[in-house]
């Protein structure tokens, strides 16, 4: 019976055939241990010389790393294995022999591994990270579908900047200027006015010349937008969503988290509600911790976010940032117009900002004033202004950065490991 490694538990003590690759092996004179992978998981295949034909055993001893094979054997329990099963092999069929696979079990430098990313993805660690990523995506769809959100796909090519920045990739769109999207948010606001609660999931691009472990040039965002929802309610939805993701990863990625050496107890602690502090309180806390360089009205850098996060065991919301350092569309606090109704969610353990969100301006006059202050093109943003002209309502939304969340849940150091083919400042290959 043909099956996959992930399904072998359904065939205990039965003979199965699996199409797979050889990840590694070791052998003695009478037994060979094959570390096999098929994309769904990893399993050990045991080939005993006395139990198989001589040609099968010789193939088991000579087969090279990453050669592809059909392996036939009996599924048995193995309590010593984290996976819990192994394969007692009785037949091997070579499909393709790999020669001189460049990534060996020895240590390799990061640049070498990045140059061979197309092959590095096959390793057990990278497999585990991608499975965590997949679970976050799956659970995101489940959360939003369960809460009556509709998925809407915003365009990737746009004629304007979502946040009015200059960190955009420019392209020529026939006879006019265009940019790769840095956020789908503005379009999601239009969708929310049509469908109430919506979310998008897609690639975004920032031409930011940053080399930190938290930054990618191309990354994926989950961006919900909600009509008739104000700031505090949006924060509650955000913490419920992140808690849902954490539980899904803990429940469904136990083997992968074990492979990564992740402290699962820290992930189990990610439960709503999350602590909240204002920007004013954050500045005061930082100054008390010796960050004399930070002044009111300045944005926080990675060291500031990390210092604040270290004060809490859960993610922490920093709310009510100064208007002058936030995007033009954020609604001012009615009690203090110098700050806006916004929040960044800072992950613990030094992983930085995971979510940025705000209540959006819903007043037409105020939005026109913001256009003037930020020197926004009336033509490019006319459609966005009209959302405040025809049936405007209070609304809010947020964006979760997928790769930073994967890094946090996986416990990996750098976001370059959290996306299949990372685009970095000096890397466009492979």
From TrEMBL:
Source domain of life:
Bacteria
- The Enzyme Commission number assigned here is 6.1.1.22
Q: What is its main location?
A: cytoplasm
| Keyword Transport belongs to the record | no
Where is this protein localized, as stated in its record? Cytoplasm
Output the SUPFAM superfamilies linked to this UniProt entry: Class II aaRS and biotin synthetases, Nucleic acid-binding proteins
An example GO CC term for this entry is:
cytoplasm
The protein, known as: Asparagine--tRNA ligase
